[in-house]
Design brief:
By secondary structure, this protein is of the alpha/beta class. The protein is 45% helix and 9% strand. The two termini are 20 Å apart. The protein binds D-gluconic acid (GCO) and manganese (II) ion (2 copies). D-gluconic acid is lined by residues 92, 137, 139, 183, 185, 219, 247, 257, 293. The site of D-gluconic acid has 9 residues, from strand 4.
Length: 393
């Protein structure tokens, strides 16, 4: 395998303790490989060329541990993180594993469960800050229902908002400089999860008290589960400066959350996603950490886990190189230039409404029949993308 695509820490690749640490259990069978300890995961990630490691509170500190126990575990972990030259850019709270969250955390009908969830999230944020995290992800794994008889969805959304508002206000009160990234998922483990797509999240964020510090954490698998375009979800977030984090993996539409090695399915979707994240068509890219929320096939032993991790990172770098080559391709540029051409300066008339602009718009010579005749050469353009991907161009 070409060394050209070996990752280094400047590539900003991160993995969660729960991703490379996944022992291969599924709803039909238990673990198939030994759990790797958090400190061994850190050593393995450093060796593999990653930049950082992310975690849920309980990936590291067991649920219900005492403060002294937490301090000891976190201290030992941070020593290894630092000695390996890694960082912890993101931290998150497990608000889904314990049975107390069986009917939701922030959206539980029981205010005591909501209070417990907020208190747990607060402690996880403190722990994240201690580790140097800049982003706190919220994934509402249990925020949903199997039956809408449970509650009015509007109440759930209102409680969700209250909890995020509370935590944001507390974070600011602590003087922490953090950003929250909300992660949408349509279903699994609940029958229907509230705020099922990145688009839903983006709107919800606009209703929050401290909306400036809240953005999204889109995941390839989750948008695909809904049958939607991850590229468009990410682009919409980027366009309003709300892409605070990203969960990269691979998924086939219409299936359970597969969490596959990045780009191992829907190669073209992955290609256009990487192209977007790297910056294309004169637009800036994304500069935050590139997180892989995926895990190795259940068939793998411990060595296979590191093959999986390396594959995620290599695939991103290979696609970044392909995307750059595609954008630099003269034929690609020519097709795009023809389609975007504006020789009569018409585009500017639509930028802002003015009465003069309106008059100019009304007298424009616009012939729909002539405009409709034009082909766009997207067959050719897409085939160029394919040929770059196939490695024959
Ligand atoms: C899932 C989610 C999680 C979250 C993680 C971070 O489908 O299980 O993607 O992996 O990303 O809990 O908050
Ligand atoms: Mn995720
Ligand atoms: Mn997921």
């Amino acid at each position: 395998m070409s060394a050209l695509y070996n990752p280094t820490s400047t590539d900003r690749f991160t993995f969660g303790l729960w991703t490379v640490g996944n022992p291969g259990a599924d709803p039909f069978g238990g673990p198939v490989r030994p759990r790797i300890s958090p400190t061994d995961i850190v050593r393995g990630l450093a060796k593999a060329g990653a930049y950082g490691v992310n975690l849920h509170d309980n990936d590291l500190v067991p649920f219900g541990a005492s403060a002294a126990e937490q301090d000891r575990i976190v201290g030992e972990f941070l020593d290894v993180v630092q000695s390996c030259g890694l960082v912890v850019p993101m931290a998150t709270t497990n608000l889904f594993s314990h049975p107390v969250f069986r009917d939701g955390a922030f959206t539980s009908s029981d205010p005591k469960v909501r209070a417990f969830a907020v208190r747990k999230a607060k402690r996880a944020i403190d722990m994240g800050v201690e580790m140097g995290a800049e982003t706190i992800v919220f994934w509402g794994g249990r925020e949903g229902v199997e039956t809408d008889a449970a509650r009015d969805c509007r109440d759930a959304l209102c409680w969700y908002r209250e909890c995020v508002d509370f935590l944001a206000a507390w974070t600011l009160d602590q003087g922490y400089s953090l950003r929250f990234a909300l992660e949408a998922k349509p279903n699994e483990p609940r029958g229907d999860l509230y705020l099922p797509t990145t688009g839903h999240m983006l709107h919800f964020i606009e209703t929050l008290d401290h909306r400036d510090m809240v953005g999204v954490n889109p995941e390839v698998a989750h948008e695909n589960m809904s049958g939607l375009s991850m590229v468009h979800a990410v682009a919409q977030a980027m366009e309003v400066n709300k892409l605070f984090h990203i969960d990269l993996n691979a998924q086939r539409i219409g299936r359970y959350d597969q969490d596959l090695r990045f780009a191992s399915e829907d190669l073209k979707g992955a290609f256009f996603l990487v192209r977007l994240l790297e910056g294309s068509c004169g637009r800036p890219g994304y500069s935050g950490p590139l997180h892989f929320d995926a895990h190795a096939y259940r068939t793998e032993d411990s060595d296979g886990v590191w093959d999986f991790a390396s594959g995620c990172m290599r695939n991103y770098k290979i696609l970044a190189a392909k995307a750059a080559a595609f954008d630099a391709d003269q034929e690609v540029q020519e097709i795009l230039a023809v389609n975007h051409a504006d020789p009569d300066g018409v585009g500017v008339l639509l930028k802002d409404y003015t009465r003069e602009g309106l008059r100019a718009l009304e007298v424009l010579d616009l012939d729909p029949e002539a405009l409709a005749k034009r082909g766009h050469q997207y067959e050719r353009l897409d085939q160029l993308a394919m040929e770059h991907l196939f490695g024959v161009r």
